[in-house]
Design a protein that fits this description.
- It is a single chain.
- Helices cover 71% and strands 10% of the residues.
- The chain is α+β, with helices and mostly antiparallel strands.
- A four-stranded antiparallel β-sheet has the order 1-2-3-4, covered by helices on one side.
- It contains four helices and four strands.
- The chain has two domains: 2-176, Helix Hairpins; 186-265, no CATH class.
- The longest helix is centred in the middle third of the chain and has 89 residues, at 90-178.
Length: 278
């Protein structure tokens, strides 16, 4: 019996441990999913920030280019006007030409920088689009994983609740086995015998009276009752029965028929629970 009780407790604890492990595992998966989603979102925000900065830079270059083109147009107008003036000096014309050439060089440089920046913007836009596509795909997968994880968590919680309920039920059974009592009355004894099928179960039909008596003893014990089997013998026969103590009265119970027979009285009634837990 001690081995059985120990094994039962181990099984119950193992079941609760597994439920707790599954709960922690699914909670960890949910947390990891949230971390992954946040990381992807941060990457996208960073790329969008870089794109905004590059677009601002391109706008600045475009403004500089427009200003420089306007300046070049003015310089070209001044140069043409100077060439048409009789009193314009060669040094003045040369200075205007130099300024115009410098402005045109600046325009070329700005146009090259603008092209490079626009190419960078295009690449960043493609990268952003790819990241958004990836993020959407990952979000879809994460949502599916979250749904699955929540379902598994729900099942794990249900399993834990079932295990706790089973544990409570088994503990109740264990307490009955560990703290059995005598029947309170002959009516209670007969009602229990009526519910029990040791005398009618076809599985037990081939068994002898002694074996049935031991079965009846075990079944009674599992429900918290004392109904010990007794065996006696003479040179020819082996006799067996069960003993029920009700108050000060002793009854004989025949396991094969459920027949009860008053036997004797104690002078002093024994304790209702011979060895109580508390």
């Amino acid at each position: 019996m001690k081995v059985f009780l120990t094994l039962l407790v181990i099984v119950l604890l193992a079941g609760l441990g597994y439920g707790g492990w599954l709960y922690m595992q699914q909670t960890g998966e949910l947390d990891q999913a949230r971390i992954t989603s946040a990381s992807l979102n941060n990457n996208l925000i960073s790329l969008q920030g870089a794109l905004t900065a590059e677009q601002a830079k391109a706008a600045g270059i475009q403004g500089q280019l427009t200003t420089e083109k306007n300046r070049a147009a003015i310089l070209e107008g001044e140069l043409n006007a100077a060439k048409g003036q009789q009193n314009a000096s060669a040094s003045q014309i040369a200075s205007l030409k130099a300024e115009l050439e410098a402005s045109k060089a600046s325009i070329t440089a700005l146009e090259s920088e603008l092209i490079a920046t626009q190419a960078l913007i295009s690449g960043t836009q493609n990268e952003v689009a790819a990241e958004i596509s990836k993020l959407n795909a990952d979000i879809s997968k994460l949502n599916a994983d979250l749904v699955k994880a929540r379902a598994e968590l729900t099942k794990a919680n249900s399993d834990i609740a079932d295990l706790k309920s089973t544990n409570a039920t088994q503990l109740e059974v264990l307490n009955k086995v560990k703290d059995p009592r005598h029947f309170y009355s002959i009516e209670e004894l007969k009602a229990w015998l009526e519910r029990d099928d040791t005398n009618t179960n076809p599985t037990f039909a081939p068994l002898g009276l002694a074996e049935k008596a031991f079965i009846l003893q075990v079944r009674a014990l599992r429900e918290g009752f004392l109904l010990p089997a007794a065996v006696d013998a003479d040179s020819e026969h082996i006799y067996s029965w069960n003993v029920a103590v009700i108050g000060a009265s002793i009854y004989v119970v025949t396991a094969g028929t459920d027949e009860t027979l008053f036997l004797a009285n104690f002078e002093v009634p024994p304790a209702q629970r011979p060895l109580p837990l508390s």
